[in-house]
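Known limitations

Files may contain more than one protein. Parsers should not assume a single record per file. Below, a two-record file is shown to illustrate correct handling: read the sequence, read the token line, then continue until end of file.
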Amino acid sequence: MHFLITGGGTREYIDPVRFISNASSGRMGYALARAALKAGHKVTLITAPTTQRVPGGAKIIKVETAAEMFEAVRKHFSRCDCLIMAAAVADYTPVRPAKTKIKKEDKFLTIKLKPTTDILKWAGTHKKKRQIVVGFALEDKKLRERAERKLKDKNLDMIIANRPAAIGSDKTAVQIKTLRSKWLGTRSISKAAIASRIVRLIENLLP
């Protein structure tokens, strides 16, 4: 299979030196890339900035913003067998980033934000043909309920749900569901072990 995997946290620039981002370490996306490679698959990894070590054997595409990640996914989606959106893509981006550094003043600063493109919905709802599309749901309340709604609303084949404590950690517990299966829960284990399990489950989705 050809896996198209996203990882890391995007940066949405306010001015040339400041940006809005998140605490994603990129560990899960990179672990998935390594697990897919170890299982003998081809991997294209679209990565936002991260300190993770690049997995040998993967094609690496570096991006920064949500818009750049969308363009990279759009370019490569038709040639993949499975898209895994493990990246923490910003939900909002500044409407008009400043062209020069914003100077500090003794007053409030208001930044107007607009929604970014929902890459997962674009792939699952509008463009999916033969591909398997897998998403992640990070929720602090009603974990399974919200994740299952995302699974259905975005026409995904699999959803992996976890809680905010997973951000930046080496271990995590996840809940996994496909359209045809019941929820599968894991105890807190390494992200590498979870990645291997996810790849095996994806392989089982093949016709």
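...continuing to the second record:
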Amino acid sequence: MRKNTFGAMALAVSLILAFTWSCGGNGKAPLLDKETIKSWLSDREVMILDVRASKDWQVSDKKIKGAVRQDPDEVKTWAATLPKDKKIVLY
């Protein structure tokens, strides 16, 4: 289980970096603390994407209300559809 969690976290960080780079960023995605994320939950300018592996997402009892679930294996399909006028948080 611990190995799966580490793998999911590594994948999430990789996706964040890849997404930032593909959008013309400086390649350094900021790490956000729990309090910051909580304060953004009601912000309409923030979109939260849950990009955990399918099996990790299915067995988890921890999900952020309002987060949009995206398959990390299909990032090339959905990344281009994300709004450019919002802050996007991947977890």
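Parsers that stop after the first record will miss the second one. For reference, the second record is described as follows. The CA atoms of residues 17 and 29 lie 6 Å apart.
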